Amino acid sequence: MVTLPDIPTDSALARLFYEERSQGDATWFSLPGGATLFKAGEPADHLYFLRAGRLGAFRKEEGGEPQFLGVIRPGEPAGEMSLITGVPHTGTVVALRDSEIFAIPRQLFLDACETDATVMTELARLMILRSRQAATKASVGEPSVFGFVAAGEPTAVRTLVDKIGREMGKLGYSVTVVGSEAQHAPTEWFSEVERNYDFVLYAAEANDLGWRQVVGRQVDRLFRVARGDAAPPAEGFARTTEPLQAQNLVDLILVQPKTRATPQGSQAWVDALKPARLFHVRRERSEDIARLARVLTGQSVGLVLSGGGARAYAHIGAIQALRERGVPVDFVGGVSMGAIIAAGLALGWESAEMDTRIRDAFVSTSPLDDIALPLLAMTRGEKVRERLARHFGDIEIADLWLPFFCVSSNLTTGTYQLHKSGLLRDALRASISLPGVLPPATTPDNNVLVDGAVMKNFPADIMRLSQLGPIVGVDVSRGRSITADDVARPESVWRWIRSGQWRKGPPIVSLLMRAATVSSGRDLAAAREATDVLVTPDLTGVEIRDWSAYEPAVAAGYRATIEALDKLDRPVTELRRRPSRHAPAAPAAAAAAAAAAAVTIT
């Protein structure tokens, strides 16, 4: 006969499950890693209580990317919001590892609430604290147990993880690194370690075959570690982490030689392992280790740059301000001209190189003066294609130093297209293909792509899916970027040509560019909700197609970013800081933090 495990009795919810279990009304079952507890849209007919293991909560909006909401830890309920409101679940909950779960029927729970009001009071308090935490953009339900396993040719995984752990400790957290010495430890030992530290890092070398399997079943998120100067093995990889892989919770770290200027051949690793995210770490580069420490602790900074034609020069000033104030950028994404500048940042261009390249590509001469018979567009697009090739060459997105994405609009499917791999210049060409101004880009599967600003000009919500830390967003599409004067018909076409104004393109170019970069109220609200520091430069007087207005736009971006940073009461990296569960704290504060750390899934 199977004996049910003991559960803690220091909360009303736990006592409820204990009592119902002893009376035979609560169901106890094991959920294997990778199995689904409930799916979005299913009826909420049970309240669940996690006894052991880990659950992951996920949500996917129609036409959007899957979103990892957080981790549900032992002692926390799942599905309570939908149960109380009587609506179907809006999220999906999956076992990240083998888990033990108690469940009681909805009516039994409601009857218990009538008998013991503290049950509902405790649950309501937990949900309120969770909602408040979400409203203040603090991190909740974040992963805290990470695994690092070798992939391909041997590399010193434990050495790397020890360095990451030390950097995390400098951020004020308690961290322990565990190797193969724990391979045969009982389940209770792992649970005890995870309770005693803010973060647990498990490291498995290439020859730790048994331990690697244990790590794959024991963590919230897994990092494969490989050598960036080696190719993936021809025989492929054993799939021992299916539950995490299926939920996009497996990342890749490529360790690069310390003298390498740009990673090479990374796309082969991406194709072989299908990681959710790719990170490059140069040997003996402490800033790369510090970046991973920020990623693991939720203090990494994502930078999002909107589209906006020539007004996007302001992004360069914003980057200068961030660098001047010591704000690190760990992830970067953009749209249209914002994607161009974001790509330069991801490549590692310093301020001087960024200035030189952008001036050469856009400022010195207009990129849009190769006027064409307007069958597909006002320009032939050859100048843009040539300049992208000159400055970005044959670089793959996977070979950028920083995780990068850009967005285009897929007119064939009617949704936005997310570019996270492939040839960088092709992705940028699609992202800046303003309808009517530049010819559209096409894909091998016969899709038509145009400027990302048409459907998502400020993709801060996409950045939120990539990382849990604070997001800095620079939106240059706000304000008066076009007036009646900009679309006035020239009094004399010949005078307009002789003056050189034709190099900006005819007035219809301004009209098309502005129409393509106007975000809907819903999209703007979603983007701003995901942004922790919103920068909106005052670009009055900078016309959207005035490619010569470089200095005033850069200066406006710099000023607006400095002003935004000056308003903060703490460093950007601290804006979503999770509290240490083991740092000295008043009992009430510690209890509130522990309750707020629970994930509420509806």
Task: Describe, in plain words, how this protein is organized in 3D.
The chain has 602 residues and is of the alpha/beta class. It is built from 21 helices and 22 strands. The strands form 4 sheets. Strands 15, 16, 17, 18, 19, 20, 21 and 22 form an 8-stranded mixed beta sheet that branches. Helix 6 (187-196) links the parallel strand 10 (175-178) and strand 11. Helix 3 crosses helix 4, helix 5 (157-170) crosses helix 10 (286-297) and helix 16 runs parallel beside helix 19 (521-530). The longest helix has 19 residues, at 117-135. The chain is globular. The model is unreliable at 1-7 and 584-602 (pLDDT under 50).
Features of this protein?
602 residues, alpha/beta, 8-stranded mixed beta sheet, 21 helices, 22 strands, 18% strand
The general outline is globular
β-strand number: 22
Mean pLDDT: 83
Question: Per DSSP, what share of the residues sits in E-state strands of 2 or more residues?
Answer: 15-25%
Main sheet summary: 8 strands, mixed
The tally of helices reads 21
List low-pLDDT spans: 1-7, 584-602
- Based on secondary structure, the structural category is alpha/beta
Rg from alpha-carbon coordinates: 26 Å
Helix content: 25-40%
Separation of termini?
35 Å
